[in-house]
Amino acid sequence: ASVAVAKAIRKAFDLKAELKWPNDVLIKGRKVCGILAEMEAEMDRVNFINLGIGINANTSTSQYEKMATSLKEELRKEISRKQLLNSLLKEIAKQQALLSSMKTVGSWRNKLAQKLLTFMNRLS
Question: Domain BPL/LPL catalytic, which positions (predicted)?
Answer without folding.
Answer: 1-100
